[in-house]
Amino acid sequence: MRCYVVGGAVRDRLLGLPVQDRDWVVVGATPEEMLARGFRPVGKDFPVFLHPRTNEEYALARTERKSGHGYTGFVVHAAPNVTLEDDLLRRDLTINAIAADEDGTLIDPYGGQADLAARVFRHVSPAFAEDPVRILRVARFAARFGDFTVAPETLALMRAMVADGEVDHLVPERVWQELARGLMEDVPSRMLRVLRDCGALARILPEVDRLFGVPQPVEHHPEVDTGEHVLLVLDHAAKTQQPLPVRWACLMHDLGKGDTPADILPHHYGHEAKSATRARTVSERLRAPVECRDLAVIFAREHGILHQVDKLRPETMVKVLETVDALRRPERFALLLEAAACDYHGRPGREAPYVRAERWRAALAAIQGVDAGAIARACDDKAQIPQRVHAARVTAVRALGGRSAADAGRDAN
Predict the structure, then answer these.
(1) What pLDDT, on the 0 to 100 scale, is given for residue 406?
(2) What is d(CA 98, CA 112) in angstroms, rounded to the nearest whole number?
(3) What is the pLDDT of residue 379?
(4) Which whole-number Å values give the CA distances from 218 to 62, 221, 341, in the listed order?
(5) Across the strands, what pairs with 59?
(6) CA distance 365 to 359
(7) Which contiguous run of DSSP H or E holds residue 266?
(8) What is the sign of the dihedral through the CA atoms of 238, 242, 245 and 249?
(9) What is the reported pLDDT for 382?
């Protein structure tokens, strides 16, 4: 029985990155031997155990044989005669098929170290094509390792997998899991670009894929292309370390522009309502968490008016704050403003601070200062309470006055 560290822990150590978790492969053992040594079984589809002291995962060396569509259609064979090389051969990329024994000696039968040095994602064997999740993983790795490229032969294989319909068999939960992890990487736009390059984006997120090539008014969007704008917005969200709901909202916010009739381009009148509908549809299809879905829908619907705060009457500002439930959900409203700032900066030349957010925060603070209880107690006609509270909020926002001309100019479209 021999144990080897495999996969990401070896890869990251060789790249000089922090190692978060270590996974082990065990060669020459049976499940009964693992149990006798105090390991706790956790694997359902194949033998995986937790170490009795470290709780690290130890999997028996195994091979896999394709038996159906998707990423679950496999027959797994784990036995003492399965070699380390057999186990590494079933892995996705050469950089993830390097092992280290217990004294640190590297075992690299498929050229992973060379591909690390060349900064290349290359599949280990044709068996890569048997698991469509690997397309999502390569795209996610592209978002994490910004200076790596996909080997031409691997990209060709990914395209063939898409053409063969393998991606269509992915379940929503697994797609969301991989997308969410990729969105939280340093350069999430690279994940979308890889998915688009191999054709998978059109199958997984067709609403996003169709934004590329859709023009916008150059005076507001020097980048012109809607798809490119969305990627810039998303990368700014990563640059400012936004949480997942904000990043998902950034990806979803302009989906309605894909529905704009060709005869009115590059303008997109009323795209916000269409974007909100599509953001909800996509979020529900992929079974995104509620907080991601709700923020995406609200931001898609309201981002246009949030940017227009300098032109809004106090009555309209209060209505917006009430519509987005800012009083009861101030933490979500704060995320909404972060998404708006990312949208503002998601175009070339937008380096100045997004000062419109300060005006919205001041307005919220003003209406939070209105004592609705006191107004209710002083009101003889209880049916008038909502109107009087609303009027008091409008008065509070009006008292804030306008911003300086310098502020307005700095934040102008």
Answers:
(1) 34
(2) 6
(3) 86
(4) 56, 5, 19
(5) 25, 48
(6) 10
(7) none
(8) negative
(9) 82
Separation of alpha carbons 49 and 26, rounded Å: 10
Please give the Cα distance from 319 to 313 (Å, whole number).
10
**CA pair distance 354, 375, nearest whole angstrom:** 35
> Does residue 25 contact residue 19 with C-beta atoms inside 8 Å?
no
Residue whose structure tokens are 């092992």: 99
Residue type, position 187, single letter: V
- Which 3 state secondary structure label does DSSP give 173? helix
Structure tokens, 355: 């000062």
Give every residue of the chain whose pLDDT is below 50, as ranges: 403-413
- Beta strand segments in 240-313, E: none
Give CA separation, 70 vs 15, 91, 167, 287, in Å.
31, 16, 7, 18
Nearest to 269 by CA among 256, 287, 250: 256
pLDDT of residue 175: 97
Amino acid, single-letter form, for residue 169: H
408 by Cβ neighbours in 10 Å (0-12 / 13-18 / 19+) ranks as middle
Which string of DSSP letters, residue by residue, matches 362-393?
Answer: HHHHHHHTS-HHHHHHH-SSGGGHHHHHHHHH
Q: In the structure encoding, which two tokens stand for residue 148, read together? A: 């790596």
Give the pLDDT score at 217. 87
- Which pLDDT tens digit goes with each residue over 220-236? 888 989 999 999 999 99
Furthest-apart CA pair in the chain: how many Å?
Answer: 86
CB 208 within 8 A of CB 230: yes
Alpha-carbon span 185 to 130, nearest angstrom: 26
Q: Which two tokens stand for residue 269?
A: 């009148």
Residues 268-287 as b or e (16 or more Cβ within 10 Å = b): beebbebbbbbbbebbeebe
Decide if 196 contacts 167 (C-beta within 8 A).
no
- Is the backbone of residue 241 left (phi > 0), alpha (psi -120 to 50) or beta? left
